[in-house]
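I am still getting used to backbone structure tokens and would like to learn alongside you. Would you supply a protein for us yourself, any chain you care to pick? Start from the sequence, derive the backbone structure tokens from it, and show both lines together. Go ahead whenever you are ready, and we will take it from there.
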Amino acid sequence: MKGMTGDARADRPFAVLEGQVRALGPWFHNLRLGPGRALSTAPYHPLGDFPANYWRYFQQTVPDDLSGWKVLDIGCNSGFYSFEMKRRGAARVLGIDHDERYLTQARFARDHLGLDVEFRRLEVYDVDRLEEGPFDLVLFLGVFYHLRHPLYALEQVAALVGRRLIFQTMERGSEAVGPVCEDYPIDERDVFLDERFPRMYFVEQRYAGDATNWWIPNRAATEAMLRSVGLWILDRPCDGVYVCQPAPGKPLPKG
């Protein structure tokens, strides 16, 4: 444009991108886009530079080189973890979410980052429909406590895990994990008063202002449920994050 300085011409594409990002907001994942990754999608996130600041606590649990691996990112939101997996060389990355708004953000970011990641709308309860499974690595982060039927969903997810599952949930209650017997008589009551016993806290209304927070386990419940769907816990790198692998054999059904 006549009369426009060099600096102004350089600023114009950035301003266009900034407007597009704003139009797609609000964003929950703070992604960095544009030249030099200078544009933040959620610069005023209440959790800070999220989820990059959280990822630092457990990023070492994922191999630096994912060459040849298929990765499934469940509840991918706008794609932060999906993009990180592709940057580590994963052969294929599929991100799924039930919210089309997040998927629109993810596809927009993917196109600007130039990363070959597929995003698809799918409920976690329907992951058994995925014909691509099993996946070498499954990410199941920040979803569990938003589900009305969490154990059913975890069963579906566990069946897709080929090598590793990285699982994360909010946890409340006691951090202690106590001894649990294989069986109890019907008149046993005291064990249920022990805070080390596996517990799930049901949120009838809201927690942290969020009506989609339904079930929040204590640590003992998280570990028990992971075992109950046939997973071995290899590591707990930080609060609420578990690295798991399939156990050699499926758990016996109750009854």
Notes: The CA atoms of residues 228 and 251 lie 6 Å apart. The longest strand covers residues 161-168.
